[in-house]
């Protein structure tokens, strides 16, 4: 890795101010590798190295930097207006949007001032689309042809704009109003005769995304059609730009990260764990932890309600953690399975009844299995150590039956809650697992003690 | 959507056996859409529709079918050896591997018999790579050039093999031994003069994956370098094939699905939730549920150990669920954050000390917050309803201090366990969250009752 092997050498070149040699040394590496090196440097050094990069490599390296380092760099370079203007004009429109959208409005205004009129118009238009919409990921670096052009003219266009285009695997055909009417693969152009028209290669079949579509919806289109690039159109069908696979991988990663964090019972961090400030980390976790704590307080209320039973038969208290945690585990299994299936699109709202039937059956099975293990445990301990008093068999029954009920109930609520959340338009992942655990804890106690009252009344109670 | 709109019409064409019209009707749709239609049909109908597809569309549609439907289709088509042989020879090598690797060895042998010698050699070689290695995702449909060729000769090669190639955005250059020596973008070829040599376009800089690399490692390369395609080489540097972005999106999705399912405390399902047989679903969930149940039994042992304390002060039992669940929630927050950060590569083993320091600090804060809320709750209930007896203030202290300890301990073990699992070479995601919850439940009880014994001895105890 460049950042490990070459750091002393690079630092040497910085200190001795050999910027030409530095440029040459870095030119042979991948933008991502140079970015990793710059990330590891102190801010001032980072700016020096960045300023030494060639005008081609610089913007590419910038695109690979985390936002924090991008901001620091732009601040350091504030005085070098020429470099800054070159950089902001040359980075891909989608990466520029990603950089600008995180900045305060005043900084955005200031930086937009560095752009050429044309780039500025593009930047402002893309920033105008809603957050989390496809528009924010659009790049305008694509090639568009007109149907009446010949293949030879098409290649002239490709030679002219191909250098900047993000992809030339697919080329787009637009009509006189800029409306998208087809996509053509470069291989078909290469295989065609120079004098053929573009129209003769068209099949008028194409897939396009809407600029206002949700980014997560767009990932589903990429999942479905296995494309590297998809064109993006507005409501009138005008070609606005393209979206590429790398952004979709990022969106899919982010989607999964958010779901995992929410499933774990915190808010989505929105930043890498390590670079989240401690205060933010505590805040994002504390909020849900307190909500769940307030919910769990109901367990104390429930336990208080059964205080006399516990006082009379302390043995009942002993199995409380076992029973409620089993319900919680069963619930978090079901919740995580359904939340992921919803996210990937494997399960939809219309499947609720089939999901419920599956969870009823599997919950029953799982409950019976745990109930049997629990029954065995109590029987063995009673026989071997004489524990749980003379009525141990009844206790074993109460515990086993409660386990069946609690595990079944855990699976049912764990699977139905995410569907319910989705139904009312909320995010199914939001703290479902711990929320289900809390719900099941409270209801589990009620199931357990009600069962105990019924079975043990007259003996232990 | 085709499957909704056209089903009656398609069915009409099937019943009237108008196969030519059927072929024509389906030709205008995307392979993914035809696949979705076939999925919805009964097995026999599906085979009829599939057999009517053109030889170009058929393999593409097959690649978009779920494995279950692929198998059913191949079984239905078993008698039509010509169709079957055409299909198996024409699907992309990577999709063929994905289809074959799920079948029993005898079926694989039988199907390999349908392949031409060349395709058979490729199929056997790809199946020879380890499961979950990059080799299983490799396709051999790429274009390779030799450095001494001219650009004109290069285009001749592209015209010849470009039709089958998965991408021609990037073309590979190999030496006389087939070793990869460079990658060239098609745009550079288009911009070059016909008589230039390929060598004159080379910069000898390229990124390649090893065929034995883990698939999840490979996704990290795609994440890092933002490429649509990466070449794959063997230990000798020979070009084995290419891997494309769509497979990487699948791997990233699968990776996240597995982690979410494991975090939720089941084994990874490996199949969509809805198509997992109920028995498998129960088995994959029961295993961990029982393991966790056995672990949670220690809570009964711990509670048994404190039986006298509970009998003397039943009020203590009331807060047991509240305290252990708070520890569990804090633990599952930390575990999910760290597991995802590990998966995405944001956190590595070398960061353990920084993670621990963060978790110590945030755990302390979170504990203090919950402790304060708990203290308030007990104070208010004691003042308003006269609950928790004359020593309620001491009880409030015990509960609050225990909360600080348990929440802190939950965060610490939740963050350290995944790192520890990774350190010993195990999967950090494996049931970390519920395992942490179980660990924290048991230790939480010990913290709580030890604290109670210390503070309440002489008053309540």
Tell me what the structure shows.
Two copies of one chain form a homodimer. Chain A has 461 residues and is mainly alpha-helical. Chain A folds into three domains: 2-128, MgtE N-terminal fold (Alpha Horseshoe), CATH 1.25.60; 144-251, CBS-domain (Roll); 273-456, Orthogonal Bundle (Tetracycline Repressor, domain 2), CATH 1.10.357. Helix content of chain A is 65%, strand content 6%. Chain A contains 22 helices and six strands. Chain A has helices at 2-5, 7-15, 19-27, 31-40, 43-52, 57-63, 67-76, 81-90, 93-100, 105-112, 117-128, 151-161, 186-191, 215-225, 245-263, 278-305, 307-312, 314-318, 320-344, 352-385, 392-423, 432-456; strands at 144-145, 170-174, 180-185, 209-210, 229-233, 239-244. In chain A, the strands form two sheets. Chain A has a three-stranded mixed sheet. The interface between A and B is large, with 115 and 116 residues.
